Each structure stands twice: as structure tokens, then as C-alpha cells.
């Protein structure tokens, strides 16, 4: 198949075809069932997955080998591709880079061999640039993510971490989160600050996480690392019933105690001992 340079798509069609043949690019429907890209329209409420991609992680002098899957909702991917087509005539490449940056690509980090999974250990982690990447102690996201990977790595069965890239600031986005930090510094707690900006306390959408769990786990029960009972309720709502919540406290410092207290008031299962105020 000849590549036509005027034809502009996100991933070159011939490469897309090759990856599909190798089984490294595939789609799952909302129930987590793999669909045939040739018989089902590529657009619609499916999720495209690229992987497995071996990723050797170096975490605090520990090496953890995971398989990475990049996952994107096809409605978003197709919107981006349509807009890219429209913009192709004018300065396409540059505009496309701007568009692509709005596309939420979630990640699955798979640890161990799924064949051994009876009730694997799972973390659904909401992205937090300041905590996960910069190591900010205003929240406990960074240590929580690292200790989750460590626990999954040391677990007999292993499991997976799903990294939800669109969940910054409990769903309000990084820009608004920056504004809430300034409001918090003038005395508001993390939930009040969202409300002051006219934004919901928590607008995270767990439907894609549920789809990915269904695809990777089938109907197996699993253990979920979280202190947030609402996360379990949300996943229940999307049809995942066999969840055992595993308390997951780490990274508590003087700097984030007030933040954790707000979470506790909001319904997180944290005892005074957990946040060092007992
Ligand atoms: Zn955070």
C-alpha cells in the first residue's frame, strides 16, 4: 500500500494495519470485549489499545518490569482525526499537535502473568502532575502510586495499575487545580476550593477504567487499593461487583495532613492514626 503524503492521519494507516495484524493495536467495546476492527466501525464508544509495551521501571532503587498499554477512547481519537483532516490544508502539523495534546490517553501497567490471577491487586490512579511527576507533598499521590506499584509487584498474583490521565484535580483539569491551590492557600480546603470555582467536588469519570478492568480481568474478583469508598461505588455502578477494598495509606506528611483531613471529612476511610492526628 502506497503512502500518500497528502493523507493525514494520527498514526500512518499502513503502520496501523501492521500493528493490528500483530495484535498490538486492538479495540474493546464498553463491556471490555475485544472487537474486530474490520467488522465494527472504528468510531463510536470503543477504546483503542496499543500494547503490550515492555517498560522497565526504576522506582526508589527498585526495578519493576511492567507491560504498558496505552488506551484511548475512540470518540476522542476520531474527533481529533476529523479536526486534523479539516486543518490539514492549513498548517496541519502544528494544529494537530495542539489537538492531540487534548486527547486523554490512559495507561494500564500490567505486573505479573494474568494467567495466575485469581483475585489480583489493582490500583486505579488519578493523574496528578504535581504529585506523581514533580513529587509535590501537597497531596499524597506520588507515594501512593509508587507504593501501589511496589505492592502489586510483591504480591503473589501481581495485578495492574490503571493511570487515568484525565483525572487531574479530581477531574477539573490542571489549570483549574492550580487555581484551587491558590484558594487553598487563602484558607479553603480542597473541596471548598473546587466549589468556589463553580466546579464539582469530584467529576472523575470511571467508565473507561471499568471497561479496561473488564477487558483485562474478565469477571474475576479483584482487590482494589483505595481509601475512597466512592471509587468502589462508581466501579460497582459500571458493572464490577466483586471488589474487595484494600486500605492504602502512604505519603502522609505535615504538608498534606490538612488535605487528608478534608478527604477524611468527605468520606475517605482514614483513621486519625492514619493521618497522624490520633
Ligand atoms: Zn495529587
Termini separation comes to 68 Å
Number of strands: 9
Percent of sequence in beta strands? 15-25%
**Helical percent range?**
25-40%
List bound small molecules.
zinc ion
Spatial order of the strands forming the largest sheet: 2-1-3-4-5-7-6-8-9
Output the radius of gyration: 20 Å
Write structural notes for this entry.
The chain has 278 residues and is an alpha/beta fold. It is built from 11 helices and 9 strands. A hairpin with a 5-residue loop joins strand 1 and strand 2. Residues 1-8 have low confidence and may be disordered. Bound molecules: zinc ion.
Give me the secondary-structure topology:
Blueprint: H1 13-21, E1 25-28, E2 34-35, E3 47-59, E4 62-73, H2 74-87, H3 92-100, E5 105-111, E6 121-126, H4 129-133, H5 141-154, E7 159-164, H6 168-171, H7 174-185, H8 190-196, H9 207-217, E8 222-225, H10 229-237, E9 243-246, H11 257-266
Bound molecules: zinc ion.
Give the tags.
single chain, 278 residues, 9-stranded mixed β-sheet, 21% strand, disordered N terminus, binds zinc ion
What would you say about this model in short?
The protein has 278 residues and is an alpha/beta fold. The protein has helices at 13-21, 74-87, 92-100, 129-133, 141-154, 168-171, 174-185, 190-196, 207-217, 229-237, 257-266; strands spanning 25-28, 34-35, 47-59, 62-73, 105-111, 121-126, 159-164, 222-225, 243-246.
Amino acid at each position: 500500500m502506497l503512502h500518500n503524503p497528502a493523507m493525514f492521519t494520527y498514526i500512518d494507516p499502513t503502520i496501523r494495519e501492521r500493528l493490528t495484524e500483530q495484535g498490538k493495536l486492538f479495540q474493546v467495546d464498553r463491556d471490555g470485549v475485544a472487537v474486530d476492527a474490520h467488522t465494527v466501525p472504528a468510531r463510536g464508544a470503543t477504546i483503542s489499545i496499543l500494547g503490550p509495551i515492555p517498560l522497565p521501571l526504576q522506582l526508589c532503587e527498585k526495578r519493576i518490569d511492567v507491560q504498558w498499554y496505552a488506551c484511548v477512547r475512540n470518540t476522542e481519537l476520531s474527533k481529533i482525526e476529523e479536526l486534523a483532516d479539516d486543518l490539514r490544508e492549513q498548517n496541519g502539523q502544528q494544529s494537530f499537535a495542539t489537538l492531540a495534546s487534548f486527547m486523554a490517553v490512559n495507561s494500564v501497567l500490567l505486573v505479573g502473568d494474568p494467567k495466575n490471577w485469581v483475585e489480583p491487586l489493582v490500583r486505579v490512579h488519578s493523574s496528578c502532575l504535581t504529585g506523581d511527576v514533580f513529587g509535590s507533598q501537597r497531596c499524597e499521590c506520588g507515594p501512593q502510586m509508587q507504593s501501589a506499584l511496589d505492592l502489586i509487584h510483591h504480591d503473589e498474583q501481581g495485578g495492574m495499575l490503571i493511570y487515568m490521565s484525565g483525572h487531574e484535580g479530581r477531574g477539573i483539569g490542571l489549570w483549574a487545580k492550580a487555581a484551587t491551590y491558590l484558594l487553598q492557600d487563602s484558607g479553603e480546603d480542597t473541596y471548598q476550593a473546587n466549589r468556589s470555582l463553580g466546579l464539582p467536588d469530584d467529576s472523575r469519570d470511571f467508565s473507561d477504567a471499568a471497561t479496561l478492568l473488564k477487558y483485562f480481568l474478565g469477571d474475576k474478583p479483584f482487590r482494589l487499593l483505595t481509601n475512597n469508598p466512592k471509587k468502589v461505588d462508581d466501579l460497582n455502578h459500571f458493572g464490577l461487583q466483586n471488589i474487595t477494598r484494600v486500605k492504602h495509606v502512604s505519603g502522609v506528611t505535615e504538608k498534606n495532613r490538612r488535605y487528608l483531613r478534608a478527604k477524611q471529612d468527605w468520606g475517605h476511610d482514614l483513621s486519625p492514626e492514619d493521618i497522624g492526628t490520633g
